[in-house]
Write a structure and sequence with these properties.
Number of helices: 9
Number of strands: 12
Largest sheet: 10 strands, mixed
CATH architecture of the largest domain: 2-Layer Sandwich
Strand content: 15-25%
CATH class of the largest domain: Alpha Beta
């Protein structure tokens, strides 16, 4: 009995039981404490240990099959999926309870699983994975930036082949191989599904934070403009379509797009309900660039040969909208695109856009007939009909994220005036005023580079 109490069996089964017990000890879930951005990560901290060096991955992915970037908890079998995102990391993995369905697939879950396997990390929490932008379900990316922490090299035979906690003594002489053809990117791409690719891996400044250090993000939205013909099969997963029997006045769209440039309160163009406490984020954002272009697929193939023959190909018109700003509210880009399409189809007066930008959170006051409510996602936050449908997620793509100089210099600090641990990691959250000041300065520099011509912030 004493042997059983001590966890050691008898006979041939004893060694097996001890090995199983050791395996269970390694696989035991860690405490609930997880790292949040800016949390104390020193050795005396109650938070889980992190790798000592910050790295960044540049990702491209087709978001069609995923419920967004953010990791999600299991759903109840009787509940209706809302596609909502958690604001904090979920608890460590556990067995699903009766009546629960597996969590929906997310990009973060796939990336974390690949990182854990490639690095032989014991738990995903030790990597502290976070992304520059939490893209929604169905949204794509060609320039998503994902941050993680790690101490040494790639996991594998040279590392013992087993998961183990980061050990400074064992990994001090190692560096993570970031070569795209044989290092971490190649290893991850061999583990990830084909609709998620790692384009590059970089060392970052020790106090780099993928979200708060960003000074701007760039999005692109594409829309096929041939009503009634549906979408080109080759672009159906990444472009929206104009509603049947509708035409879009490109000149009207182009004029209305200029209204969004500059610094405004975008409460009216997001799912943020100004009358609620949801999202304490500052609704005042700066749009540096809002460009609209009318293009043709296969335009170069429609040419006349010297012998009088004619090549016929594609030639389908589509609308490309490029937006760059210092920050965005929830679904803001899709709201702005939806409003522009409504202007182009003659359903919304462009002056209404200007009025709502001027009124900000009070845009509903004296609305004079906004009407009420479909209650669907198309109406946006608050459930009130706004005169346009929110543009579908599949046409949106995160193109890139801008960071200050020095963000990818691992030998210097980005925020030397803040409190750091011995490895240069932040022990406090980056103050909001620091984030805003950096974004204002970056926007001003961008405006000067553009020569102060129209469209400046």
């Amino acid at each position: 009995m004493a042997d059983r109490a001590g966890g050691v069996g008898r006979g041939r089964g004893g060694a097996r039981s001890a090995k199983q017990a050791a395996g269970h000890a390694r696989a035991a879930p860690p405490p609930r404490a997880v790292r949040l951005a800016g949390a104390d990560t020193s050795s005396s901290s109650p938070f889980l240990p992190l790798g000592k060096h910050s790295h960044a991955l540049v990702l491209a992915y087709d978001g069609t099959a995923y419920s967004g970037w953010q990791l999600q908890a299991p759903r109840k079998a009787t509940a209706t999926s809302t596609g909502s995102e958690n604001d904090s990391p979920p608890p460590p993995p556990r067995l699903r309870k009766k009546g629960e369905r597996p969590p929906p697939p997310t990009v973060q879950a796939a990336v974390e699983q690949a990182l854990v396997t490639a690095l032989r990390a014991p738990y995903r929490e030790w990597l502290g994975v976070c992304a520059a932008g939490r893209t929604d379900a169905g949204v794509h990316a060609t320039g998503q930036v994902v941050q993680f922490y790690w101490d040494g090299g790639l996991g594998g035979a040279e590392d013992g082949g087993e998961a183990a906690a980061p050990d400074a003594a064992a990994t001090a002489a190692k560096t993570l191989d970031l070569d795209p053809t044989r290092g971490l990117p190649a290893r991850l791409n061999g583990l990830l599904p084909p609709d998620i690719r790692v384009l590059a891996a970089l060392r970052t400044a020790p106090d780099f934070v993928a979200t708060a250090s960003a000074t701007a993000k760039a999005y692109r939205y594409e829309i096929d403009l041939l009503p009634g013909l549906g979408c080109d099969p080759l672009s159906a997963r990444r472009r929206a379509q104009v509603p049947p029997r509708r035409t879009v006045d490109f000149a009207a769209v182009e004029r209305a797009a200029r209204l969004f440039e500059g610094t405004h309160d975008f409460s009216a163009f997001s799912n943020r309900d100004g009358s609620s406490s949801v999202g304490a984020r500052d609704p005042v954002k700066t749009i540096e660039v809002f460009e609209v272009a009318l293009l043709l697929d296969g335009e170069e193939e429609e040419r006349e040969e010297e012998d009088g023959g004619v090549w016929v190909g594609g030639g389908r018109p589509f609308l490309r909208i490029d937006v760059r700003g210092t920050g965005f509210l929830y679904k803001q880009v899709r709201h702005m695109v939806g409003a522009l399409l409504s202007v182009g189809m003659g359903q919304l007066d462009p002056q209404e856009i200007a009025r709502r930008l001027e009124r900000g959170a009070n845009w509903r006051d004296d609305d004079g007939g906004s009407g009420s409510d479909s209650g669907s996602d198309s109406s946006g936050g608050g459930g009130d009909w706004r005169g346009y449908n929110v543009a579908p997620a599949k046409g949106l793509c995160l193109r890139g994220v801008r960071y200050p100089r020095g963000a990818f210099d691992s030998s210097a600090l980005l925020y030397p005036w803040l409190e750091h641990d011995a490895w240069g990691r932040l022990r406090q959250a980056i103050p909001p005023e620091t984030v805003r000041a950096a974004r204002r300065e970056a926007a001003a520099r961008g405006s000067r580079r553009r020569g102060g011509g129209g469209g400046g912030a």
